[in-house]
Design brief:
Blueprint (H helix, E strand, L loop, with lengths): L4 E7 L2 E9 L11 E2 L4 E2 L20 E6 L2 E5 L1 H8 L5 E8 L9 E9 L4 H14 L2 E8 L2 E10 L2 E7 L22 H14 L11 H14 L18 H32 L7 H6 L2 H13 L2
Parallel strand pairs: 1-7
Antiparallel strand pairs: 1-2, 2-8, 3-4, 5-6, 7-9, 8-11, 9-10, 10-11
Helix pairs in contact: 3-5
Length: 304
């Protein structure tokens, strides 16, 4: 992992030197913008509309438009000086219960690891947070952007989740077409609660998959091998004419879904036993890197 930030967590007069690492990764499949006619990547240029010339990065400053067409500007040095006062400190302001924070405030998660000289203070802080079952609410500045942050223990490791300030959360009054609160039909409510109960389970993040990514990887593999990309027809929902019918159909569907996995598992086990226990995910293992290799080797054979 690459260190994205160095500093210290501070609360009271205590300082815990830490390094910051991103805790999540983007698994989106990278796509380039191509010219359709020639299949070559297009270029983005930074052009000044006044002098009609390309602008290099060292000629660029940031500006705030305080009136239409009028800007105050800041260069990189000025912005760094504005952020320098707190840019190396995660300053904890309060300790609160995690349940008190609405998830709408959370942004991006980072891991915090101790500096070589801060292992003892780091372990002490981790154990103190676990003992009190609290999280710290802090101020932090990362890449010239200030934000709130929640400092908590995740699986024995200090983590930091950047948060929005209250003023960055849009009020619900701005949401159009919200219905007024009204009484609902008791039978519909009972069936809705029953459906939620049937679909409830413990949270197991490993069982959720990015279905679009899987389909895209398979389509990439098919195109690399020169196959026609075929799309499976979408499952049609049963025709329902009322909310009650929809609830009944959903309950029936969820009951069937609960019975299906066991049958599928037994079929998979039989197939695995016949094939000697091998199970390979065709799209994931082939489309990312080997696809490139195969296309190169194919071009050599054809003399391309």
């Amino acid at each position: 992992m690459q260190t994205v930030w160095k500093g210290a967590v501070s609360f009271g007069l205590v300082n815990v030197p830490v390094k910051m690492f991103t805790a999540t990764q983007d698994n989106d499949i990278p796509m380039k913008m191509l010219h359709k006619e020639y299949n070559v990547p297009i270029h983005y240029t930074r052009t000044c509309p006044k002098c009609e010339s390309d602008v290099s990065w060292d000629e660029i400053v940031k500006g705030y438009e305080y009136e239409p067409g009028h800007f105050v500007t800041f260069d990189k040095k000025e912005l760094n000086q504005l952020a320098s006062e707190s840019s190396r400190e995660i300053r904890i302001l309060d300790f609160v219960d995690l349940e008190e924070i609405d998830p709408i405030y959370f942004q991006k998660t980072y891991y915090l690891a101790p500096e070589e000289t801060g292992a003892h203070a780091y372990n002490l802080f981790v154990q103190a947070l676990e003992e009190t079952n609290k999280i710290g609410i802090a101020n932090v500045t990362i890449r010239s952007k200030s934000s709130l942050a929640a400092i908590r223990v995740a699986d024995g490791v200090l983590s930091m989740v950047t948060m929005y300030f209250a003023e960055e959360i849009r009020p619900k009054e701005e949401i159009p077409n919200l219905p007024e609160a009204s009484k609902v039909d008791k039978r519909e409510l009972d069936m809705a609660v029953m459906l939620i109960d049937q679909l409830s389970s413990a949270f197991e993040p490993d069982k959720y998959e990015d279905e679009y990514r899987e389909r895209l990887l398979e389509a990439i593999e098919d195109k690399v091998e020169g196959k026609e990309v075929k799309f499976a027809p979408e499952e049609k929902n049963p025709n329902v004419v009322s909310l009650m019918d929809a609830l009944k159909a959903s309950l029936k569907q969820s009951e069937g879904a609960e019975r299906r996995p066991a049958k599928k598992t037994s079929e998979d086990n039989e197939k695995k036993a016949r094939s000697g226990g091998s199970s390979r995910r065709p799209a994931e293992s082939k489309a990312s890197k080997p696809a490139k290799t195969r296309s190169k080797s194919r071009s050599k054979k054809t003399g391309a």
